[in-house]
């Protein structure tokens, strides 16, 4: 967010972000705390991810209903998140050694808060390999203070540099147990690739990314992180 001539401009990739920002500003003002403190509370209770999941419903409601939804999430004080993983392989135990290299957030096990996105991942992997099946796994992620978690709320310069490092160097170029943030998928990959190849500057790339639809991913990179991920079910899709 930056000011120019008395006018405030916000870098917003989607109306989901706008809804989240409005809720954040409202919460900070109502409780007389800074926006940074409000962000930390939203992060702790996965408010951003839950707004993303419920966006289709919240988008049709009055903004004050969204504010109340946020208040209810924080009041419940249950820092758990339902996650989905799409694959063409049926498995019972996660093996980080089998993770693909040069991923957005580094080598790891990737999930999403969006079940439809997991369905698409499963279908894409099956069509690419023509092996196995189409499986969607449902997990419960229990956030803990012992985990080092990095949260990216937007497609900004920090996210872009983070993705660049992990995709170009490979393996895991950070020390986080879990990383949460936007996906460099079909909606964003062309811009990301132009940036990685040096055709676009970081500022040009971020400007383009503002107009992309944002999907979500949650990546797990350490055995400790996996201890907080509990499998609920697996289904064929």
Question: How would you describe the overall organization of this protein?
Answer:
There is one protein chain. Mean pLDDT is 85; it is low at 1-13. Strand 6 (149-151), helix 7 and strand 7 form a beta-alpha-beta unit. The chain has two domains: 11-77; 79-234, no CATH class. The strands form three sheets. A four-stranded mixed beta sheet has the order 4-8-7-6. Helix 1 packs across helix 2 (35-44), helix 1 crosses helix 3 and helix 8 runs antiparallel to helix 9. The protein has 237 residues and is α+β, with helices and mostly antiparallel strands. The chain contains ten helices and nine strands. The protein has helices at 15-30, 35-44, 47-53, 55-58, 63-76, 115-129, 157-169, 189-196, 202-209, 223-226; strands spanning 2-4, 7-9, 80-87, 109-111, 135-142, 149-151, 178-182, 216-220, 229-236. It comes from Blautia hansenii DSM 20583. This is DUF3990 domain-containing protein. InterPro entries: DUF3791, DUF3990.
Separate helix tally: 10
Task: Give start-end ranges of low-pLDDT stretches.
Answer: 1-13
H/E element order: EEHHHHHEEHEEHEHHEHE
Report the β-strand fraction as a percent range.
15-25%
Could you give a short description of this structure?
This is DUF3990 domain-containing protein. With 237 residues, the chain is of the alpha+beta class.
Topology (elements, then pairings):
Elements: E1 2-4, E2 7-9, H1 15-30, H2 35-44, H3 47-53, H4 55-58, H5 63-76, E3 80-87, E4 109-111, H6 115-129, E5 135-142, E6 149-151, H7 157-169, E7 178-182, H8 189-196, H9 202-209, E8 216-220, H10 223-226, E9 229-236
Parallel strand pairs: 6-7
Antiparallel strand pairs: 1-2, 3-5, 4-8, 5-9, 7-8
Helix pairs in contact: 1-2, 1-3, 1-5, 8-9
